[in-house]
Design brief:
Layout lengths: L1 E4 L4 H9 L18 H8 L13 H11 L10 H10 L1 E5 L4 E3 L7 E7 L3 E6 L2 E7 L5 E2 L2 H5 L6 E3 L4 E7 H24 L9 H10 L1 E6 L3 E3 L7 E7 L2 E5 L8 E6 L5 E2 L2 H5 L6 E4 L3 E8 H8 L3 H8 L4
Antiparallel strand pairs: 1-10, 2-9, 3-8, 4-7, 4-9, 5-6, 5-8, 10-17, 11-16, 12-15, 12-17, 13-14, 13-16
Helix pairs in contact: 3-4, 4-6, 6-7
The chain binds adenosine-3',5'-cyclic-monophosphate (2 copies).
């Protein structure tokens, strides 16, 4: 099996640990507009844009590069664009107790955390509640830039926060379109998957960010009956079958075929905390599957648990 694309972010894990719900969908989803012909036109006319540059030591550059290459917004940048972004980032420090972002205000920067644990808070039912405790490596303040909305939450420094800020113009010129294009590519596929049809674009964006593409060859096992399993799979290309041995000594029996992109398997071990109930084997010359780890599955597909459980009742 070959892993093509490590998509998982530490941000997802941290959100999971904090156990808070996904942010609501942005009020106006403008993501598609940003890949309109007009936006591409602007993208091509980058001549007038001079990104800011803030000198950094080689150590700072490398540290920041390793943080950004794990971030869902930045990891798809090529080396040239990544360098422009790295140089454009300005070091900022926030003392404990200081307010970094205020909900409802306009925002012109996003922040990448090198050190510190700022808290994101939102008014929910008239009460200011912590919705996310950030960690080093997280990005915050990206929503206002991605969707041209007012700040969706307040962010306060709880300890000394060492951050790097990126201005809106550099973000728009270098990061926004490529991030949006990546998301769009995944979204077009995920939208066609029955399971995700009722999710909004923002939720699908989070899922697509957690998906990891895995490639298998004919005859390879993706799951093995009786083994522990921590991954949920969605077929993207190719075909496979689920094969089950009903009891010891019985002949293996094909219990399910997966041929349509969007077909999924591997949910039982995660839903029921049990070993794999069947083996899933590739039947086409090659198969591509999108893998979602247990944590992301629980967090993102939690609301679909009833649907998945009901569907599983139909298994032989
Ligand atoms: P932005 O709206 O630009 O400014 C506030 C930031 O808080 C927001 O971007 C997100 O990066 C971050 N945030 C974390 N959790 C949430 C949430 N549940 N809803 C909205 N924003 C959140
Ligand atoms: P899981 O047990 O995690 O891993 C093997 C997967 O095969 C299982 O989840 C289901 O998604 C899938 N499967 C398809 N048909 C069956 C079946 N009849 N019994 C059990 N698992 C099945």
């Amino acid at each position: 099996m070959a892993v093509k694309d490590a998509e998982h972010t530490s941000e997802e894990e941290e959100e999971e640990e904090a156990g808070e719900p996904l942010p609501p969908p942005p009020k106006t989803l403008k993501a598609r507009q940003s890949i309109s012909a007009e936006a591409y036109g602007m993208w091509n006319q980058k001549t007038a844009f001079t990104p800011p540059t803030y000198a950094k030591t080689p150590e700072q550059m490398e540290r920041l590069r390793s943080i950004l290459s794990n971030s869902f917004l930045f990891k798809q940048l090529d080396d040239k664009d990544m360098n422009v972004v790295l140089l454009a980032m300005k070091e900022v420090m926030f003392a404990p107790g200081s307010r970094i972002i205020t909900e409802g205000e306009d925002g012109n920067h996003l922040f990448v955390i090198e050190e510190g644990h700022p808290e994101c808070k939102k008014f929910i039912d008239g009460e200011l509640k912590v919705v996310k405790q950030c960690n080093p490596g997280d990005v915050f303040g990206e929503l206002a830039l991605l969707y041209n909305n007012p700040r969706a939450a307040t962010v306060d420094a709880t300890d000394m926060c060492h951050c790097w800020e990126l201005d809106r113009e550099t973000f728009n010129q270098i990061v926004k379109d490529s991030a949006t294009r990546t998301w769009q590519r995944w979204d077009d596929f995920l939208k066609s998957v029955e399971l995700f049809r009722h999710m909004d674009q923002y939720q699908r964006a989070h899922i697509s960010d957690a998906l990891k593409l895995e490639c298998y060859k004919q005859g390879e096992y993706i799951t093995r009956q009786g083994e522990p399993g921590n991954t949920f799979y969605i077929l993207e290309e190719g075909s496979c079958v689920a094969v089950k041995v009903a009891h010891e000594g019985a002949a293996p029996e094909v219990v399910m075929e997966y041929r349509t992109p969007g077909d999924y398997f591997g949910e039982l071990a995660l839903l029921k905390d049990q070993p794999r109930a069947a083996s899933c084997v590739v039947t086409s010359p090659e198969a591509k599957v999108l893998a979602l780890d247990r944590k992301s599955f629980k967090k993102m597909l939690g609301p679909l648990e009833d649907f998945l459980t009901k569907h599983a009742e139909e298994y032989k």
